[in-house]
């Protein structure tokens, strides 16, 4: 049976919901594509989660260790990438009470990783040329790069959108829940998110970093964000961290008292990190990028919240490397979704 190669740092769920299921849509091999025939290593520390409440003994999800994050950039002092309060207190010789004994983590970033893809400029050309030439081989499609570039640009300019739908990209995204609320509005994407009913949620919370602009000025629809003062940053850092600590403590207290996870999670705020798989095609992604990346030189500038823009920027970088001609045509035509 074909299996997905080991993916570091995540629940390794290949094609569909069932890990270990056959890999179907693999078009080209490459560093970011699934490799057919890759032997599966023996599974370490496997566990069997309930999936949508149905215990399925055939489903095995592998959990791997969290990858360490890169250090903060120059000048980024607060908040630190990760703060383990219980460990810090113990190291300082301070006794740790039951209340404090959870490993809370504060972050200011988002994670986006391309997990698998079947997406290239050739997919667009293939689909478009069936209109005029019928079936083409990959060699025919790649024979004249200038013509290919011109055709993609024409499709983008004249908003012939459907040829851009013959591609697929799956991303792993880890971000605060308030970002997911916005991302899930994009109905042409497919999502699967970690469950707060079937597993205990980790205490990982979002605290805006020092570079995050904090103050909104101007009228709704026509406002700008400007830097906060050091005092405002200090207030935001301290107030969010304290609020997160309190709510996670209440969550644990209810779990310890035997309350179901699905009830106890009601106290957790939208700054809690969640993780999900997001699958989309290039056309859907362009619609997302046109709305969720702020580019004042675009034909229809949008003014998204910075945190979803951070996700969108990372998705765009991965997509641009897979489909450079399509990405260039998107840029050249005012970032309008065709
Ligand atoms: C800056 C910004 C501010 C926002 N503020 C708010 C807010 O205050 N409140 C709020 O509720 N939302 C808000 N949104 C969300 C917004 O209204 C959209 O839900 C979101 O941007 C998804 O856009 P979409 O419908 O184009 O995307 P998708 O759902 O991915 O749809 C893609 C395209 O498919 C077509 N389509 C999809 N479904 C249908 C359908 N049912 N009927 C017809 N065509 C369809 C449309 O052409 C659509 O553009 C905001 C979004 C942005 C970018």
TrEMBL record:
BP term (GO), one: methylation
EC number(s) given by UniProt: 2.1.1.148
Any one GO molecular function term: thymidylate synthase activity
Positions with a binding annotation for dUMP: 182-185, 193-197, 265, 292
Reactions mediated catalytically: dUMP + (6R)-5,10-methylene-5,6,7,8-tetrahydrofolate + NADPH + H(+) = dTMP + (6S)-5,6,7,8-tetrahydrofolate + NADP(+)
Pathway(s) it belongs to: Pyrimidine metabolism; dTTP biosynthesis
SUPFAM superfamilies: Thymidylate synthase-complementing protein Thy1 (SSF69796)
Enzymatic class: transferase
Region (Disordered): 1-29, 63-82
Cofactors, names only: FAD
UniProt keyword list: FAD, Flavoprotein, Methyltransferase, NADP, Nucleotide biosynthesis, Transferase
InterPro entries assigned: Thymidylate_synthase_ThyX (IPR003669), Thymidylate_synthase_ThyX_sf (IPR036098)
Residues annotated for FAD binding in this entry: 162, 185-187, 193, 281-283, 287
Cofactor note: Binds 4 FAD per tetramer. Each FAD binding site is formed by three monomers.
Pfam family, one: Thy1
HAMAP family, alphabetized: ThyX (MF_01408)
NCBIfam families: thyX (TIGR02170)
Oligomer status and interactors: Homotetramer.
UniProt record similarity statement: Belongs to the thymidylate synthase ThyX family.
Function of the molecule: Catalyzes the reductive methylation of 2'-deoxyuridine-5'-monophosphate (dUMP) to 2'-deoxythymidine-5'-monophosphate (dTMP) while utilizing 5,10-methylenetetrahydrofolate (mTHF) as the methyl donor, and NADPH and FADH(2) as the reductant.
Protein name, per record: Flavin-dependent thymidylate synthase
Originating species: Actinomadura harenae
């Amino acid at each position: 049976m074909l299996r997905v190669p080991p993916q570091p740092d995540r629940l390794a769920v290949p094609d569909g919901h069932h890990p270990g299921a056959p890999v179907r849509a693999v078009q080209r091999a490459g560093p970011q594509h699934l490799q057919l025939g890759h032997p599966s290593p023996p599974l370490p520390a496997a566990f069997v989660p309930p999936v949508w409440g149905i215990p399925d003994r055939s489903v095995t999800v592998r959990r791997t260790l969290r990858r360490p994050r890169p250090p903060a950039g120059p000048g980024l002092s607060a908040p630190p990438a990760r703060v383990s309060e219980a460990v810090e207190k113990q190291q300082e010789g301070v006794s740790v009470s039951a209340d404090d004994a959870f490993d809370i983590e504060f972050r200011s970033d988002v994670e986006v990783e391309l997990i698998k893809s079947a997406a290239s400029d050739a997919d667009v050309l293939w689909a478009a040329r069936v209109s005029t030439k019928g079936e083409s081989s990959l060699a025919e499609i790649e024979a004249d790069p200038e013509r290919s570039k011109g055709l993609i640009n024409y499709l983008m300019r004249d908003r012939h959108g459907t040829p851009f739908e013959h591609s697929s990209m799956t991303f792993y995204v880890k971000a605060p829940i308030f970002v997911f609320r916005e991302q899930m509005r994009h109905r042409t994407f497919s999502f699967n998110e970690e469950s707060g009913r079937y597993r205990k949620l980790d205490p990982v919370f979002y605290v805006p970093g020092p570079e995050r602009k904090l103050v909104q000025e101007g009228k709704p629809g026509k406002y700008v964000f400007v830097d906060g003062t050091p005092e405002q940053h200090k207030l935001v850092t301290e107030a969010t961290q304290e609020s997160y600590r309190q709510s996670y403590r209440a969550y644990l207290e209810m779990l310890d008292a035997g309350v179901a996870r699905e009830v106890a999670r009601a106290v957790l705020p939208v700054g809690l990190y969640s993780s999900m798989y997001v699958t989309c095609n290039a056309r859907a992604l362009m619609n997302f990028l046109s709305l969720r990346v702020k580019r004042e030189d675009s034909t229809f500038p949008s003014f998204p919240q910075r945190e979803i823009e951070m996700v969108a920027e990372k998705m765009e970088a991965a997509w641009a490397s897979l489909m450079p001609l399509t990405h260039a045509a998107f840029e050249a035509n005012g970032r309008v979704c065709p």
